Amino acid sequence: MKNNHIFLIVIFAGLAFFEIASILNKSVMMAGILLAIITGMVLGIKIDKDPQKYTFLAVFTYSIIAWVLMLLFTKDGKFLLEAGIAATSLLTGFAIMNFLFNAIVGSFAAFVTCNISDNRTD
Amino acid sequence: MNISKIRIVALDEILRGVKSKHVWFFSSALAFICILAMHYSTSLAFLFSDSGKIPFTYISFMIILIIGPFFILVTAFDSISNEVEKGTVRYIISKIDRASFMLGKFCSLFLIFAVLTFIVAIMGQVYTYSSGNAFDLERMILFWLFSSLYLGCFISIFIFVSTLSKNNKIAFTMSAILLGITIYFFMQGGNEYLRYLTPPYYAFAVSGTMKNTTGEIDYFNMIRNLVSMLLFIVATLSIDILTFKRRDL
Lengths: 122, 249
Prior knowledge:
The structure holds 2 protein chains of 2 kinds.
Chain A: H1 3-23, H2 28-46, H3 51-73, H4 75-82, H5 85-116
Helix pairs in contact in A: 1-2, 1-3, 2-3, 2-5, 3-4, 3-5
Chain B: H1 3-16, H2 20-40, H3 56-76, H4 81-86, H5 88-95, H6 98-130, H7 137-164, H8 168-187, H9 199-204, H10 207-211, H11 219-246
Helix pairs in contact in B: 1-6, 2-3, 2-6, 3-6, 3-7, 3-8, 6-7, 6-11, 7-8, 7-11
Protein backbone atom coordinates (compact mmCIF):
# COMPACT_ATOMS: atom_id res chain seq x y z
CA MET A 1 0.00 0.00 0.00
CA LYS A 2 1.30 3.45 -0.87
CA ASN A 3 2.09 5.97 1.83
CA ASN A 4 -0.51 8.40 0.50
CA HIS A 5 -3.26 5.78 0.85
CA ILE A 6 -2.32 5.05 4.44
CA PHE A 7 -2.18 8.78 5.10
CA LEU A 8 -5.74 9.27 3.81
CA ILE A 9 -7.08 6.22 5.68
CA VAL A 10 -5.58 7.53 8.91
CA ILE A 11 -7.16 10.96 8.39
CA PHE A 12 -10.63 9.46 7.89
CA ALA A 13 -10.14 7.05 10.79
CA GLY A 14 -9.09 9.99 12.98
CA LEU A 15 -12.23 11.90 12.08
CA ALA A 16 -14.38 8.86 12.81
CA PHE A 17 -12.74 8.30 16.21
CA PHE A 18 -13.16 11.98 17.10
CA GLU A 19 -16.86 11.63 16.38
CA ILE A 20 -17.05 8.47 18.51
CA ALA A 21 -15.28 10.28 21.37
CA SER A 22 -17.74 13.17 21.19
CA ILE A 23 -20.73 10.79 21.07
CA LEU A 24 -19.40 8.93 24.12
CA ASN A 25 -19.03 12.31 25.85
CA LYS A 26 -15.31 11.77 26.51
CA SER A 27 -12.80 14.59 27.00
CA VAL A 28 -11.84 15.77 23.49
CA MET A 29 -8.39 16.83 24.71
CA MET A 30 -7.69 13.41 26.15
CA ALA A 31 -9.15 11.67 23.10
CA GLY A 32 -6.99 13.87 20.85
CA ILE A 33 -3.78 12.87 22.63
CA LEU A 34 -4.63 9.17 22.69
CA LEU A 35 -5.68 9.28 19.05
CA ALA A 36 -2.42 11.03 18.11
CA ILE A 37 -0.44 8.32 19.91
CA ILE A 38 -2.39 5.54 18.14
CA THR A 39 -1.96 7.30 14.77
CA GLY A 40 1.78 7.61 15.42
CA MET A 41 2.05 3.93 16.29
CA VAL A 42 0.11 2.83 13.19
CA LEU A 43 2.07 5.05 10.82
CA GLY A 44 5.35 4.17 12.54
CA ILE A 45 4.74 0.51 11.73
CA LYS A 46 3.26 0.97 8.25
CA ILE A 47 5.46 3.69 6.77
CA ASP A 48 9.16 3.02 6.33
CA LYS A 49 10.36 6.48 5.41
CA ASP A 50 9.69 9.60 7.50
CA PRO A 51 6.78 8.32 9.59
CA GLN A 52 7.18 11.33 11.90
CA LYS A 53 6.44 13.76 9.08
CA TYR A 54 3.40 11.80 7.91
CA THR A 55 2.06 11.49 11.45
CA PHE A 56 2.47 15.19 12.12
CA LEU A 57 0.60 16.06 8.93
CA ALA A 58 -2.11 13.44 9.46
CA VAL A 59 -2.86 14.46 13.07
CA PHE A 60 -2.82 18.14 12.23
CA THR A 61 -5.03 17.65 9.15
CA TYR A 62 -7.75 15.58 10.81
CA SER A 63 -7.78 17.90 13.83
CA ILE A 64 -8.25 20.96 11.61
CA ILE A 65 -10.98 19.22 9.58
CA ALA A 66 -12.74 18.17 12.80
CA TRP A 67 -12.53 21.75 14.11
CA VAL A 68 -14.00 23.20 10.89
CA LEU A 69 -16.79 20.59 10.86
CA MET A 70 -17.53 21.37 14.49
CA LEU A 71 -17.77 25.09 13.70
CA LEU A 72 -20.04 24.56 10.70
CA PHE A 73 -22.38 21.76 11.75
CA THR A 74 -22.85 21.79 15.53
CA LYS A 75 -24.77 23.98 17.95
CA ASP A 76 -21.59 24.83 19.87
CA GLY A 77 -19.92 25.94 16.64
CA LYS A 78 -22.89 28.12 15.70
CA PHE A 79 -22.88 29.65 19.17
CA LEU A 80 -19.16 30.38 18.85
CA LEU A 81 -19.50 31.94 15.39
CA GLU A 82 -22.30 34.17 16.65
CA ALA A 83 -20.09 35.37 19.53
CA GLY A 84 -18.01 37.44 17.12
CA ILE A 85 -14.70 37.39 15.32
CA ALA A 86 -12.61 38.06 18.44
CA ALA A 87 -13.93 35.08 20.37
CA THR A 88 -13.71 32.80 17.33
CA SER A 89 -10.12 33.83 16.58
CA LEU A 90 -9.07 33.39 20.19
CA LEU A 91 -10.57 29.92 20.51
CA THR A 92 -9.28 28.89 17.09
CA GLY A 93 -5.79 29.99 18.13
CA PHE A 94 -5.97 27.90 21.30
CA ALA A 95 -7.33 24.97 19.32
CA ILE A 96 -4.52 25.17 16.73
CA MET A 97 -1.92 25.25 19.51
CA ASN A 98 -3.53 22.16 20.98
CA PHE A 99 -3.49 20.44 17.58
CA LEU A 100 0.20 21.26 17.19
CA PHE A 101 0.98 19.70 20.57
CA ASN A 102 -1.06 16.62 19.65
CA ALA A 103 0.76 16.38 16.33
CA ILE A 104 4.12 16.54 18.14
CA VAL A 105 3.00 13.81 20.55
CA GLY A 106 1.96 11.68 17.57
CA SER A 107 5.29 12.29 15.82
CA PHE A 108 7.15 11.16 18.90
CA ALA A 109 5.03 8.01 19.09
CA ALA A 110 5.86 7.37 15.42
CA PHE A 111 9.58 7.86 16.10
CA VAL A 112 9.53 5.36 18.98
CA THR A 113 7.46 2.79 17.08
CA CYS A 114 9.51 3.12 13.92
CA ASN A 115 12.75 2.50 15.81
CA ILE A 116 11.44 -0.35 17.93
CA SER A 117 9.67 -2.04 15.04
CA ASP A 118 11.43 -4.85 13.23
CA ASN A 119 10.52 -3.34 9.85
CA ARG A 120 13.24 -0.72 10.04
CA THR A 121 15.08 -0.21 6.78
CA ASP A 122 18.43 0.98 8.23
CA MET B 1 23.12 -8.82 33.66
CA ASN B 2 26.22 -8.81 35.83
CA ILE B 3 26.76 -6.50 38.83
CA SER B 4 30.54 -6.34 38.44
CA LYS B 5 30.19 -5.37 34.78
CA ILE B 6 27.64 -2.69 35.67
CA ARG B 7 30.13 -1.37 38.24
CA ILE B 8 32.94 -1.35 35.69
CA VAL B 9 30.86 0.59 33.13
CA ALA B 10 29.59 3.04 35.76
CA LEU B 11 33.04 3.72 37.24
CA ASP B 12 34.53 4.10 33.79
CA GLU B 13 31.84 6.63 32.88
CA ILE B 14 32.21 8.58 36.13
CA LEU B 15 35.99 8.75 36.32
CA ARG B 16 37.52 8.17 32.92
CA GLY B 17 34.76 8.63 30.34
CA VAL B 18 35.16 11.18 27.53
CA LYS B 19 32.01 12.90 28.71
CA SER B 20 32.64 12.70 32.46
CA LYS B 21 33.94 16.30 32.73
CA HIS B 22 30.91 17.55 30.83
CA VAL B 23 28.54 15.66 33.16
CA TRP B 24 30.37 16.78 36.30
CA PHE B 25 30.27 20.38 35.08
CA PHE B 26 26.52 20.43 34.47
CA SER B 27 25.65 18.57 37.66
CA SER B 28 27.86 20.94 39.67
CA ALA B 29 26.20 23.89 37.93
CA LEU B 30 22.81 22.61 39.10
CA ALA B 31 24.06 22.27 42.67
CA PHE B 32 25.65 25.73 42.48
CA ILE B 33 22.37 27.32 41.32
CA CYS B 34 20.52 25.66 44.22
CA ILE B 35 23.10 26.93 46.75
CA LEU B 36 23.04 30.39 45.18
CA ALA B 37 19.24 30.54 45.45
CA MET B 38 19.38 29.48 49.10
CA HIS B 39 22.09 32.06 49.81
CA TYR B 40 20.16 34.95 48.30
CA SER B 41 16.75 33.84 49.63
CA THR B 42 17.56 35.67 52.91
CA SER B 43 17.38 38.92 50.92
CA LEU B 44 13.86 37.97 49.84
CA ALA B 45 12.66 36.88 53.27
CA PHE B 46 9.59 39.10 52.96
CA LEU B 47 8.24 36.64 50.37
CA PHE B 48 7.76 33.97 53.02
CA SER B 49 4.99 34.00 55.62
CA ASP B 50 7.43 33.56 58.51
CA SER B 51 10.59 35.49 57.64
CA GLY B 52 12.43 33.85 60.54
CA LYS B 53 11.94 30.40 59.04
CA ILE B 54 12.89 30.50 55.38
CA PRO B 55 12.24 27.04 53.83
CA PHE B 56 15.72 26.51 52.33
CA THR B 57 14.98 22.88 51.53
CA TYR B 58 11.83 23.88 49.66
CA ILE B 59 13.69 26.53 47.62
CA SER B 60 16.35 24.08 46.45
CA PHE B 61 13.71 21.37 45.89
CA MET B 62 11.69 23.66 43.60
CA ILE B 63 14.82 24.61 41.65
CA ILE B 64 15.65 20.95 41.13
CA LEU B 65 12.05 20.24 40.07
CA ILE B 66 11.93 23.09 37.57
CA ILE B 67 15.39 23.29 36.02
CA GLY B 68 16.79 19.86 36.93
CA PRO B 69 15.26 18.11 33.86
CA PHE B 70 17.01 20.56 31.52
CA PHE B 71 20.39 19.75 33.08
CA ILE B 72 19.60 16.05 32.79
CA LEU B 73 18.69 16.63 29.14
CA VAL B 74 22.09 18.11 28.28
CA THR B 75 23.97 15.41 30.14
CA ALA B 76 21.99 12.28 29.26
CA PHE B 77 20.79 12.81 25.69
CA ASP B 78 23.92 11.35 24.06
CA SER B 79 24.78 8.62 26.56
CA ILE B 80 24.03 5.79 24.11
CA SER B 81 23.66 7.58 20.78
CA ASN B 82 27.22 8.95 21.04
CA GLU B 83 28.58 5.41 21.31
CA VAL B 84 26.36 4.28 18.43
CA GLU B 85 27.40 7.22 16.24
CA LYS B 86 31.11 6.64 16.85
CA GLY B 87 30.77 2.87 16.52
CA THR B 88 32.44 2.18 19.89
CA VAL B 89 29.31 0.42 21.13
CA ARG B 90 30.17 -2.63 18.99
CA TYR B 91 33.48 -3.11 20.82
CA ILE B 92 31.84 -2.66 24.20
CA ILE B 93 28.92 -5.03 23.68
CA SER B 94 31.28 -7.73 22.45
CA LYS B 95 32.74 -7.79 26.01
CA ILE B 96 29.81 -6.64 28.13
CA ASP B 97 26.18 -7.67 27.72
CA ARG B 98 23.71 -5.00 26.65
CA ALA B 99 21.72 -4.92 29.90
CA SER B 100 24.84 -4.35 32.01
CA PHE B 101 26.03 -1.64 29.63
CA MET B 102 22.69 0.15 29.80
CA LEU B 103 22.43 -0.12 33.59
CA GLY B 104 26.05 1.03 33.96
CA LYS B 105 25.27 4.15 31.94
CA PHE B 106 22.19 4.83 34.07
CA CYS B 107 24.03 4.22 37.36
CA SER B 108 26.88 6.55 36.43
CA LEU B 109 24.57 9.50 35.78
CA PHE B 110 22.33 8.64 38.71
CA LEU B 111 25.26 8.44 41.14
CA ILE B 112 26.72 11.77 40.02
CA PHE B 113 23.41 13.57 40.46
CA ALA B 114 22.67 11.75 43.74
CA VAL B 115 26.01 12.94 45.17
CA LEU B 116 25.37 16.51 44.05
CA THR B 117 21.84 16.56 45.49
CA PHE B 118 23.24 15.20 48.76
CA ILE B 119 25.63 18.17 48.89
CA VAL B 120 22.68 20.51 48.23
CA ALA B 121 20.71 18.80 51.02
CA ILE B 122 23.59 19.32 53.47
CA MET B 123 23.98 22.95 52.42
CA GLY B 124 20.25 23.45 53.00
CA GLN B 125 20.66 22.23 56.57
CA VAL B 126 23.71 24.45 57.06
CA TYR B 127 21.67 27.49 55.97
CA THR B 128 18.77 26.42 58.21
CA TYR B 129 21.14 26.11 61.18
CA SER B 130 22.88 29.42 60.43
CA SER B 131 19.51 31.22 60.36
CA GLY B 132 18.93 30.13 63.97
CA ASN B 133 16.75 27.05 63.44
CA ALA B 134 17.32 23.43 64.41
CA PHE B 135 18.52 20.76 62.01
CA ASP B 136 15.72 18.90 60.25
CA LEU B 137 17.26 15.59 59.27
CA GLU B 138 13.96 14.01 58.21
CA ARG B 139 13.34 16.66 55.58
CA MET B 140 16.96 16.55 54.49
CA ILE B 141 16.75 12.80 53.81
CA LEU B 142 13.37 13.17 52.11
CA PHE B 143 14.73 15.99 49.96
CA TRP B 144 17.71 13.89 48.93
CA LEU B 145 15.59 10.82 48.16
CA PHE B 146 12.98 12.67 46.14
CA SER B 147 15.44 14.86 44.24
CA SER B 148 17.62 11.88 43.30
CA LEU B 149 14.66 9.75 42.23
CA TYR B 150 13.08 12.61 40.31
CA LEU B 151 16.30 13.20 38.38
CA GLY B 152 16.67 9.42 38.00
CA CYS B 153 13.26 9.26 36.29
CA PHE B 154 14.42 11.81 33.74
CA ILE B 155 17.77 10.07 33.26
CA SER B 156 15.98 6.83 32.42
CA ILE B 157 13.60 8.44 29.91
CA PHE B 158 16.37 10.38 28.17
CA ILE B 159 18.47 7.20 27.95
CA PHE B 160 15.44 5.59 26.30
CA VAL B 161 15.40 8.30 23.61
CA SER B 162 19.17 8.03 23.24
CA THR B 163 18.84 4.28 22.70
CA LEU B 164 16.37 4.82 19.86
CA SER B 165 18.38 7.50 18.08
CA LYS B 166 20.92 6.97 15.33
CA ASN B 167 22.97 10.05 16.11
CA ASN B 168 23.35 12.83 18.67
CA LYS B 169 21.38 15.38 16.67
CA ILE B 170 18.26 13.22 16.57
CA ALA B 171 18.77 12.25 20.22
CA PHE B 172 18.89 15.88 21.36
CA THR B 173 15.87 16.93 19.28
CA MET B 174 13.78 13.98 20.42
CA SER B 175 14.83 14.42 24.05
CA ALA B 176 13.79 18.08 23.93
CA ILE B 177 10.47 17.05 22.37
CA LEU B 178 9.93 14.41 25.04
CA LEU B 179 10.61 16.98 27.76
CA GLY B 180 8.06 19.28 26.13
CA ILE B 181 5.54 16.42 25.97
CA THR B 182 6.15 15.63 29.64
CA ILE B 183 5.48 19.25 30.60
CA TYR B 184 2.39 19.30 28.34
CA PHE B 185 0.99 16.15 29.97
CA PHE B 186 1.75 17.47 33.45
CA MET B 187 0.07 20.81 32.71
CA GLN B 188 -3.16 19.07 31.67
CA GLY B 189 -4.27 19.08 35.31
CA GLY B 190 -7.82 18.22 36.32
CA ASN B 191 -8.81 14.60 36.02
CA GLU B 192 -6.65 13.86 32.99
CA TYR B 193 -4.78 10.71 33.91
CA LEU B 194 -1.87 11.33 31.52
CA ARG B 195 -0.20 13.39 34.24
CA TYR B 196 0.32 10.15 36.20
CA LEU B 197 2.84 9.22 33.52
CA THR B 198 5.03 12.21 34.33
CA PRO B 199 7.66 12.36 37.11
CA PRO B 200 6.83 16.00 38.06
CA TYR B 201 3.39 14.87 39.24
CA TYR B 202 4.91 12.69 41.97
CA ALA B 203 7.56 15.24 42.91
CA PHE B 204 5.19 18.22 43.13
CA ALA B 205 2.84 16.11 45.26
CA VAL B 206 5.39 16.19 48.09
CA SER B 207 6.53 19.80 47.69
CA GLY B 208 4.04 20.90 50.37
CA THR B 209 5.89 18.84 52.98
CA MET B 210 9.19 20.49 52.03
CA LYS B 211 7.60 23.93 52.40
CA ASN B 212 5.93 23.31 55.74
CA THR B 213 8.93 23.42 58.09
CA THR B 214 6.95 23.09 61.31
CA GLY B 215 4.05 20.74 60.53
CA GLU B 216 3.87 16.98 60.60
CA ILE B 217 5.16 14.95 57.67
CA ASP B 218 2.51 13.00 55.78
CA TYR B 219 4.37 9.68 55.57
CA PHE B 220 1.65 7.89 53.64
CA ASN B 221 1.83 10.48 50.84
CA MET B 222 5.64 10.35 50.94
CA ILE B 223 5.87 6.56 50.66
CA ARG B 224 3.20 6.42 47.95
CA ASN B 225 5.06 8.93 45.78
CA LEU B 226 8.43 7.37 46.55
CA VAL B 227 7.21 3.93 45.44
CA SER B 228 5.58 5.46 42.36
CA MET B 229 8.87 7.06 41.34
CA LEU B 230 10.78 3.84 41.94
CA LEU B 231 8.25 1.94 39.82
CA PHE B 232 8.56 4.59 37.12
CA ILE B 233 12.35 4.17 37.03
CA VAL B 234 12.15 0.36 37.03
CA ALA B 235 9.54 0.36 34.24
CA THR B 236 11.46 2.83 32.09
CA LEU B 237 14.76 1.01 32.61
CA SER B 238 13.11 -2.27 31.63
CA ILE B 239 11.84 -0.65 28.43
CA ASP B 240 15.35 0.80 27.85
CA ILE B 241 16.95 -2.62 28.15
CA LEU B 242 14.35 -4.31 25.94
CA THR B 243 14.75 -1.61 23.30
CA PHE B 244 18.54 -1.79 23.39
CA LYS B 245 18.43 -5.58 23.06
CA ARG B 246 16.21 -5.28 19.98
CA ARG B 247 18.34 -2.63 18.32
CA ASP B 248 20.44 -3.55 15.36
CA LEU B 249 23.82 -1.95 16.08
